[in-house]
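Worked example 2:
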Amino acid sequence: MELTDVDLLGAQDHYLAVVATTRSDGTVQGSLVNAGVMAHPVSAQQVVAFATYGKAKLSNLRSRPRATVVFRSGWQWATVEGPADIIGPDDPFAGFDPSGLPELLRSVFRAAGGTHDDWATFDRVMSEERRAAVLVHPQRIYSNRS
């Protein structure tokens, strides 16, 4: 299983994925997001990306920067696990110009199958919600596909 396979599977169900992060007590926090595969804006390596303003996810990732992302379609599923980078208004990232955040969030949205008729409104809402991009580096990829 490669990231291209993960991306194809994600496309089959609107790029919906379950993201799991770890709480401070070691338990798992999960939530549903739209996620996709794209190039990291600094390293250009392929990563799984999603945007969030979720207090729990961001708090967990700031303290323990690892995530598991599971895509599914029917009974087929694929999991990507790895360290995560956060780039957002409250999370500067070395080598990334903060003025590029609106375009990064657009790229994450497009990678997750999104389209928009009014990018100015999209940018405004993302800014108001203080959305951040989360970029998961694939250390482990596995699935039930043969």
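Residues 3-143 form a domain with the Pnp Oxidase; Chain A fold (CATH 2.30.110.10). The helical segments are 3-11, 55-63, 101-111, 119-128.
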